[in-house]
Automatic annotation (TrEMBL):
<protein>
    <recommendedName>
        <fullName>AbiJ-NTD3 domain-containing protein</fullName>
    </recommendedName>
</protein>
<dbReference type="InterPro" id="IPR041427">
    <property type="entry name" value="AbiJ-NTD3"/>
</dbReference>
<feature type="domain" description="AbiJ-NTD3">
    <location>
        <begin position="94"/>
        <end position="259"/>
    </location>
</feature>
<dbReference type="Pfam" id="PF18860">
    <property type="entry name" value="AbiJ_NTD3"/>
</dbReference>
C-alpha cells in the first residue's frame, strides 16, 4: 500500500479540521479519531497537522478508513483514499458486458425500497455533490440525485436501470467499487425487507454466475442477511502455460526460470504451447484460432480453422475411438456457435516431471495428462476423461483395485485444486447415439456455467 500517497491525500483534509472545534477540544477530537494528541503550540491547522504527522505509518490505513466510515471526506478525496486502501485487497473481476447484463436483469424489479438510503449509497460510492437550491428546500433533491429521483420515484414508470448505470458510469467503475455498489444495493437499508433482498440477489446472480462470481449470504446484521461478491471457483491462479495436443511426453526446459519462460527443447512439433493471457472469458475457440494463425503465419482464417482442428484431432490416439468421437462430436454439434464457445483442448499436460514414474517412485505425481480440458468463463476449469479398460483393469483385463485407487486419488487431487472432473466410460462412446449424448452433456455443462448459446 502506498502510505506516502495516502498521507499526501489526507493531510489537507486533516488541516481543515481546524473548523471542527476550538483549540481546547483538539485533544479530545484527536483521541476520537485515533490521532496522537499534539502539543498546544501554533495555529489550529498546525496542531492538526502535527497530530497527523506523528501518526505511525502502520496506523495510517486504519485512520483513513475511519474518516471514510465517518464520512469526513469529500467525495473525490474519499474515492482516492479508497482506491489506495483497496490496492492490496483481492479483486473480483466483473467485465462490462456482465455488468450490463446485471442492469438488464434488475429491470423487472423495483430497484430500491427506501429512497433516502439509496441516495446515501449513491453518495457513498460515486462523486456526487449536492447543491442547495429552491427546489431542494421544497423537499426534492436536485442535480444528479434529482434526475434519478424524477425517474425512479416521482415517475416510476420511467425507471430504466440500464440508463441509471450509464448515467452513473457504473459500467466503468473499478472492480472494487462495483462490488461495494452491489453490496449496498442488496443491503437491508436499501431493500428494507428480506424478501426484497433475496429477490434482487437472485436476479443479479444469473448474469454474475456467467463470469464466475455470485452475491452470497456471508453474514447477519440486526436480523438481516448481508451479501457480498465471492468467486465461485477455487483454482489458485489464472492459467500461465498450456501444453497440449501432445502424443508424447514433451522435452521441456526453462529458458528463463525467473520469468517462467518455458521452451520445448526437442520435438516441438509434437506438442502445442499456448502462452497468451487467459482472461475472465476463458479460452474460446476464436482465441485459440487467432493464436494458431499468428503462430503458423496462416493469413486465411478458414484455413487456420481447418488446420488447427486437424492438428488437435491428430494428437488423439487412434487406438481410442471413444476419445476421437467425443472430440469430433463436440466440434460438429454447435456449428456457428463454436467460435464463442470454450475450446476443447485435447491431451493437456497437468503435471510434468523430468523423471519417470519408476524413477520418482511413491512420490510420483498422479494424472500427468488430461484427456480434455476446457477453460470456462470466470476461471472455471473442466477436465473430461474417457476411461478405457486400462483405467481399472490390468493387462489381462482383470479388475485392478490398485489402478482404480490411483484413478480415484487423482480425481480428488484435481478437484481439490479447483477443477471439475467428468468421466465417460469408453463403452458409452461406442453406440449410434453417442454423438447425441455428447451434445446433450455439453449443453448441460454450458447451461450450468451460464454460457449463453443461441
Amino acid at each position: 500500500m502506498d502510505i506516502p500517497a495516502l498521507r499526501d491525500i489526507l493531510r489537507p483534509t486533516v488541516g481543515d479540521f481546524k473548523d471542527l472545534c476550538t483549540n481546547t477540544f483538539i485533544p479530545e477530537r484527536c483521541i476520537e479519531l485515533g490521532l496522537p494528541v499534539p502539543d498546544d503550540v501554533g495555529s489550529k491547522r498546525d496542531r492538526w497537522h502535527a497530530a497527523f504527522d506523528a501518526l505511525e505509518d502502520i496506523d495510517v490505513p486504519r485512520f483513513a478508513q475511519g474518516l471514510v466510515d465517518r464520512r469526513h471526506l469529500s467525495p473525490q478525496v474519499r474515492n482516492d483514499v479508497q482506491d489506495i486502501l483497496w490496492d492490496d485487497t483481492p479483486v473480483v473481476v466483473i467485465p462490462k458486458r456482465h455488468r450490463r447484463d446485471v442492469a438488464r436483469a434488475l429491470q423487472s424489479l423495483v430497484l430500491f425500497h427506501h429512497w433516502e438510503s439509496f441516495a446515501q449509497l449513491l453518495k457513498d460510492v460515486f462523486v456526487i455533490y449536492e447543491a442547495v437550491s429552491w427546489a431542494s428546500l421544497t423537499g426534492e433533491p436536485t442535480g444528479v440525485l434529482g434526475e434519478i429521483f424524477r425517474h425512479f420515484v416521482r415517475n416510476e414508470e420511467d425507471a430504466n436501470v440500464e440508463w441509471l448505470f450509464d448515467y452513473l458510469t457504473v459500467f466503468d467503475l473499478s472492480d472494487n467499487r462495483f462490488s461495494v455498489f452491489l453490496k449496498g444495493l442488496t443491503s437491508a437499508d436499501v431493500q428494507i425487507d428480506i424478501e426484497h433482498q433475496m429477490s434482487i440477489v437472485a436476479a443479479m446472480n444469473v448474469p454474475l454466475k456467467a463470469c464466475g462470481v455470485e452475491m452470497r449470504h456471508i453474514d447477519e446484521h440486526e436480523g438481516y442477511p448481508v451479501y457480498s461478491l465471492v468467486a465461485l471457483h477455487t483454482a489458485h491462479a489464472r492459467p500461465k502455460n498450456l501444453i497440449f495436443a501432445s502424443s508424447i511426453k514433451p522435452d521441456i526446459r526453462f529458458r528463463d526460470a525467473v520469468n517462467n519462460d518455458i521452451e520445448i527443447a526437442s520435438n516441438a512439433n509434437d506438442c502445442l504451447f499456448y502462452d497468451r493471457p487467459i482472461g475472465v472469458e476463458g479460452l474460446r475457440w476464436k482465441d485459440l484460432q487467432q493464436w494458431w494463425a499468428d503462430t503458423s503465419m496462416e493469413k486465411d482464417p478458414q484455413a487456420a480453422k481447418k488446420t488447427l482442428y486437424q492438428r488437435l484431432l491428430s494428437c488423439l490416439p487412434k487406438s481410442s475411438p471413444p476419445q476421437r468421437l467425443l472430440f469430433t462430436s463436440f466440434y460438429s454439434a454447435f456449428g456457428k456457435e463454436i467460435p464463442d464457445l470454450p475450446a476443447l483442448l485435447p491431451e493437456v499436460w497437468l503435471h510434468w516431471d523430468p523423471k519417470t514414474v519408476a524413477q520418482r517412485g511413491v512420490h510420483a505425481l498422479l494424472n500427468h495428462r488430461m484427456d480434455f480440458l476446457l477453460l470456462l468463463p470466470g476461471g472455471a476449469r473442466v477436465v473430461i476423461e474417457v476411461d478405457g479398460v486400462q483405467h481399472y483393469a490390468d493387462d489381462n483385463c482383470r479388475a485392478d483395485t490398485r489402478r482404480y485407487a490411483r484413478l480415484a486419488a487423482g480425481d480428488r487431487e484435481l478437484k481439490l485444486a479447483g477443477y471439475e472432473v467428468y468421466r465417460f466410460g469408453g463403452i458409452e462412446l461406442q453406440s449410434p447415439q453417442s454423438s447425441i449424448m455428447v451434445e446433450q452433456f455439453f449443453k448441460a455443462l454450458f447451461s450450468r456455467h451460464h454460457i449463453r448459446m443461441n
